[in-house]
Amino acid sequence: MGTTNVIEEKYYQSLYEVASAVNSARDPNDVLRAMVEMVARAMEAKACSLMLLAPDKKTLVHRTAFGLSDRYMRKGPVSADRSMAEALQGRPVAILKAADDERIQYRKQAREEGIASILSVPVTLRDEVVGVIRVYTAETRHFSAADTFFVGAVANLGAIALENATLREAREKEYRSLQQDLAEWTAALGWEWMDQGTVVPAREQD
Predict the structure, then answer these.
(1) Neighbours of 81 (CB within 10 A)
(2) Closest Cα to residue 68, out of 14, 140, 137?
(3) How big is the CA angle at 73 (ends 23 and 85), to the nearest 5 degrees?
(4) Which residues pair with 67 in a beta bridge?
């Protein structure tokens, strides 16, 4: 079996595992963390991260990552207009030399982190780009069409996981609110019962 076939088989297997994780009953946030790890391992890359657009649509923040140091993660906000503009327009972007490419905002930090090349693929939810999956390699790498297709397919599955996470968070917030309302209602009702005294059933007439 040729090298290309081996790589494609690995990607298909990883896609199956990501799809199974997304379709599981696991916490969606755990699924997202597992997803970026699977991508990094399948591509034999240094790291992988999922970055989402902030509400201001001007910066991106790390939602989850695998293989990146805490120092690199805390390097500062990533400008959507500077290093992510192409990806946020819906096009995959491959950076061959991250430490020298002006499209990379934190070139010095990338060099210190040991990052050579970067592949950025948009994450689209309901026809809107909401973030980017980034793959980082320790050696200079020309990303193939198969690499880009694989990450793009994972990005689509990641969008489903993100939607699941949003729905879960909304349900948990609604449940906590309902619990609080119920506790307050029960407490108020309990005081009313105490004010009315104990209710004694009437005896049957002889």
Answers:
(1) 11
(2) 137
(3) 80
(4) none
Q: What is the pLDDT of residue 97?
A: 96
The CA distances from residue 90 to 85, 112, 123, in Å, are 9, 29, 8
pLDDT per residue over 117-171, tens digit each?
Answer: 999 999 988 888 889 999 999 999 999 999 999 999 999 888 887 787 667 666 6
Strand partners, 128: 125
Q: What's the Rg (C-alpha) of the chain?
A: 25
Q: Which fold has domain 3-169?
A: Beta-Lactamase (3.30.450)
Closest of 136, 85, 91, 81 to residue 109, by C-alpha: 136
- What is the rounded (10 degree) CA torsion for 34, 36, 41, 44? 180
